[in-house]
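Hi! If you just cloned this repository, the fastest way to understand the data is to look at a raw example. We've pasted two of them here, unedited. The first protein comes first, obviously.
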Amino acid sequence: MNTSGTTTRPPPEGLKDYEAEGHTRDTTRAAAGKRLGEVCMLQLGHADGDGAFMAIARREGKRVLWSRMSGALREHYGVAFDARGIDHALDESIGWVLSITDKVVASERARAH
């Protein structure tokens, strides 16, 4: 644990790939695609509608990422990267994921009808 009370973990694979090589590796992209597919399936199966799913996914995603990544982000970007900066970065990252999954889910629903 670090001084902020969070567990220090290495940066995500995609970030490490990009910083080291200027792009993500095929295995990293494949793993990300699998995870996006899992989020799509969760959204498709959510009984309370897309709005409720998005709110829960955003809240819980930020909670999990905060606990796993805030220490690594702070270490990576320096102490100037405060809680507000971390929250904004996580919110933006989750927003990208939810934007992608929402498009995939809409496409799947359109194909089903």
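Ok, and the second one:
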Amino acid sequence: MTGQANICWVIGGYFQRKDIISSILQKVGNPPAHIYDDVDMGSFQEEVCEVSMFDDNKVVIINNWPRYDGTKNKFNKVFLSTLKSISPNCVLIINNISSQSKKIFEYINSYGKVYKFETNISNNQASAFLEKFFKQHQKSISSQEINSILLSFGQGVYQFNVDQVYLVAQKILHFIGDRKVIKEFDILKTCNNNNEFVIWSLFSCFDNKDYISVSQLMKNLFIDDILKSIENLIQSSLWRYKAILLAKEAINNGISKKDVIFKIQQLSKIQQESSGLQSSTVAEFKNEKKVPIYSEKILKNLIEGNYYNKAAIEQYSRKQIFDIVRVLQSFLNKIRKGISEKKAKIILNDIFMLICDKISYSNFMIMHGL
């Protein structure tokens, strides 16, 4: 490397730092890196300031500041002086160490290179990160598939650990191999260890009447305690379709979407409280505020849609919603009274066919009579 100071300061996410360090090593011919987790100032100065008689490139990586017996201000002066004396054939990489010294930062920023990566990123930043990552690897991915990847971290997640996002992207990359286009199926197969993600993906498939994808997702959902998993899924589905029913009825009655969202948000979760021999049902509170059943974001997605999905209330007729809610509630009652796993699976499959418009409500009732 040439220049007044061959110094790189790399801060932030592990995998982004790893990529930068690998690219630096490659640029200087991949010499063995001298890595120090613990080094005293004197040894550090000898390592980076000594000129090699063979003019070989040398890379020194420090994972902690060199030990120094003195004040912080004195350390900063000595370290800055050392930076100014680095051998021209030495590349120093300061790896993920923080410092309050403006002078050290300004010197490296002026004569070397500072790479600062965020460790936690927003939804938009995570989307941009994934888009850039796959583009760099000559892979094509749509915004809907990117949204599915982010959903795999859980519904309502607003901050993403960049290393976790990177790992998921790498997992997908390895899964698709030489294929150029990333599809929803690839994400379902690689991110299916999160039950919450599977359930929210199911909801999207329901709205799109995509029974084939629903069937594929179901294989990844029921591993342990099948009846309990089915009960949880039915509860989640009932919770969602009741919100759609409430919204659809209110809008049909002339209430604006904005007011519908506000009114449904006022519904709060309830809990049982006991005192002696008496028990009562009361609103659930958190930080002295009632806990709503539905968040504003979820209601907006159901009623208005978003960049990735159409509004759920537009995908069903009023009668369909009534039928779905009626069947889900009846099936939930049946599970709680007692039912075999085999029978529960058969009914569940037919409920999904009903939701996806593959069988009619009348045919479903003839088969199961819930």
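That's it. A detail worth noticing about the second one: The first strand starts at residue 7 and ends at 11.
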